[in-house]
Amino acid sequence: MAEPAGTMQSAPQPVVGLPYCCPNPVDVAIVRKVMTLSDGNPVVTDNNGNLIFKVKGALLTLHDRKVLSDASGQPILTFRKKVCSLMNEDVSDFKVKCSWFDRSCVIYAGGSSNIVAQMHKKTSIQSLFLGKDKFMVTIYPNIDYAFIITLIVILDEIRRSN
């Protein structure tokens, strides 16, 4: 697979952990059932449909907490809605440019033009009929795919709450 201009080819960039940094691009699908009682907890599969991650979270919890687990159910990380921050948010490690109209986004390393991941929503007759949202994601080499998947799940949560 040819890399687009501005992509990173460097040492692994772990955020969640080094085991989630691959030397090759990682293509995944994030699938969420819509209009369900569980509020559509997403699952993440590879190109062959094999489960990689599950996202679990309760609808009405005090901290609105979600957990990313591996295929065996082992928790990898927990994330929750942020109330406030005392950190300088002008400096960031990643930049996200989204087009909710096109249902796509590109994730860059910091303030650079280096693309680390791309996402687009895949719509089909089957997904519409079954009531599923499906996002196709390509994570570039040596980028922590557990982190990128979590970031995209958070972005989708923000979009759905607006």
Keywords for this entry:
single chain; 162 residues; mainly beta; nine-stranded antiparallel sheet; 14% helix; 36% strand; globular
Structural class estimated from helices and strands:
mainly beta
Give the CA-CA distance, first to last residue: 36 Å
Helicity, in percent?
10-25%
Number of strands: 9
Strand order of the largest sheet: 5-4-3-2-1-9-8-7-6
SSE order, as H and E? Answer: EEEEEEEEHEH
Low-pLDDT stretches are none
Percent strand equals 35-45%
Number of helices: 2
Report Rg: 16 Å
The global form is globular
**Mean model confidence by pLDDT:** 80
**Largest sheet report:** 9 strands, antiparallel
Descriptive account of the structure:
The chain has 162 residues and is mostly beta strands. 14% of the residues lie in helices and 36% in strands. The protein contains two helices and nine strands. The protein has helices at residues 125-130, 145-161, and strands at 26-33, 43-46, 51-57, 65-70, 75-80, 94-99, 104-109, 115-121, 132-139. It has a nine-stranded antiparallel sheet. It is globular, with a radius of gyration of 16 Å. The model has no long low-confidence stretch (mean pLDDT 80).
Quick synopsis:
By secondary structure, the chain is mostly beta strands. The chain has helices at residues 125-130, 145-161, and strands at residues 26-33, 43-46, 51-57, 65-70, 75-80, 94-99, 104-109, 115-121, 132-139.
